[in-house]
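Title: Prediction job returns without error message
Component: structure pipeline
Severity: low
Priority: P3
Assignee: unassigned

Description:
Job completed but the reporter wants confirmation the result is attached to the right record. Sequence as submitted:
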Amino acid sequence: MPDLLIELRSEEIPARMQRKAAGDLRKLVTDALVGAGLTYEGAREYWTPRRLTLDIRGLGARSADLSEERKGPRTDANDKAIEGFLRGAGLASIADAHVHRDPKKGDFYVAHIVRPGRPTPEIVAEVMPGIIRTFPWGKPMRSGPASAKPGALRWVRPLQSIVCTFGSETEETVVIPFEIDGIVASNVTYGHRFHAPDAITVRRFDDYVEKLEKAKVVLDGDRRKQIIASDAANIAFAAGLELVEDEALLEEVSGLVEWPQVLMGTFEDAYLEIPAEIIRLTIKTNQKCFVTRPVGETEMLSNRFILVSNIEAKDGGAEIIHGNGKVVRARLSDARHFWIRDQGDLPDLDTLKPSAEKFGLDLAKPLDQRMAKLDALNVTFHAKLGTQGERVARIRALAKELAPLTGADAAAVDRAVVLAKADLRTEAVGEFPELQGIMGHKYALLQGESAEVAAAIEDHWKPNGPSDRLPANRIGLTVALADKLDTLTGFWAIDEKPTGSKDPYALRRAALGVIRILLERGVRLPLSRVVTDGDLLSFFHDRLKVYLRDLGARHDLIDAVLTPEADDLLMVARRVEALTAFITSQEGLDLLAGTKRATQLLSAEEKKGTVVADAVDPALFTLEAESALHAAIEIAATEAGAAIGDEDYRSAMAALSRLREPVDRFFADVLVNDEDPAVRANRLALLGRIRAATGTVADFSKIAG
């Protein structure tokens, strides 16, 4: 079977776009080919900073013939209807149509249309221009002589050449020529723009990869990542150090080079006085370089950094290392300036006294000064939700309510809250916003705050996603809960809720953070104390369902436990856990079977409007099976209630499971729909007692099986 090779070569493609763009190319092309009636065995995409490549293996040489039967008008239709049918079906005369007889609807014409398959090159040449012209780049640009013409090509960077070849291993490949704004597809590409800028003639994919490699281009992006990671680790190891891994940086750097050359640079030891996080971000953000540390060290860095060049320099990279080192030193000098200034006094302390009094701040301390400044400047949090200072005041009040529930020291919680946002006014966070919280932690320790309060300042953002760690102590846990709950209640109050896939304020992430803290740290928090909007409580329920399903819980068991008014999410989770363990046991199967039979019959009668007594009257019992079931329900309900009071849900279910035998006997011996209306209503009330007793644990009608 033939293979298809496509390469779209352009000027530099932004690294963040490459992987997605290559995937888009694969999907667009394969969808178009399949839509045209072709089949293929496999397709794989590749990318470099200057090209997107697609390798499609086992592509059919032509599309399959298509047969279509098109129904036309009745045979007695007027001439205009018949003429329209002939035009649409592509028939020369009505004699080319077939007549189908229908005893009910009458005779009508049918066209049997056969569309012969087409050669694959013809299909590719037809679909590719449209794919290229409508390619989903985020911010495409026009370029070249044709850019001023209507409908000119828009590409992420100027498109320079196109390769499109087709053929099998045993045959000579053919070029599929199509044209885009003067660029004609061919079998010619180009290698590394510095090391091998001459034209390269290629045939099929294997030949193409081999020639690119000789021309200093590693086509496979994942292989470039492996080369960089391996070489960087080896260079660091040779210097007695270890690489500080950074997957996001590795992905980005692999998209900046076609021929990765890994080198090591250095800076002065004096810069190591700066916190490691600032050093790492300075070097990463400004120079796209990796940092290293002594082997076994977790906090301190070394003064060596790893850089990746796209050039195989004749001097072994000495000039490249020198140039990168010069920039790194300049940026680290700026960072040290931020670090020192943030520990000094602000120049306008007198103007900050009202804010300091409001929050109980000590203006002799640098971080307190920054919080006072944040409040005094009236820095906006959200136009409808007020300033950052007002937000801190809300979080402070909420945290005071939460502290008794989390078991955290109230004074320490209050101190952590009023300092949690202070580092927003530091120069380090102004330069590197991702250091918010981290710098607050460091500055808090420097001014003598307790380790617990300092850690809480860093952790008040956490968890910031499903895999992020939780706050390290109860103080941080309390501040984090208050922060996230204020965010959620605030945006709900101004009707800024997530819609579809849009969630600009990360409210789903905030709700998941609350859920993770409550469940993973065992916090009992009745959400109704802080959540007054039923729609927000429902939002929490939806996120809880997602969280529990991700942990393996069955959706029907979650629905059986989660009621619309449930506000203690920890108890919901524990009930689901107990129900999951119980429902697969014999006791669980007994409880499910007995309960379902009773509740289904009761529900059916209620839908009919059958009268159900308000309470069970033992005086109306006429059979021993009724008395036995009533007695069993009373015992089971009492035992289950006591177990639920102790939050022992498995024992509660075990007590209720003993209803199976008296329920089965009841249905064997008793006719519920007795002719006497009073007896019938009383027996239905007895079934209602079963539903009420088991409903304290779960709604068994929602459980499958």
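Comment from assignee: result matches the submitted record. The first strand starts at residue 3 and ends at 10.
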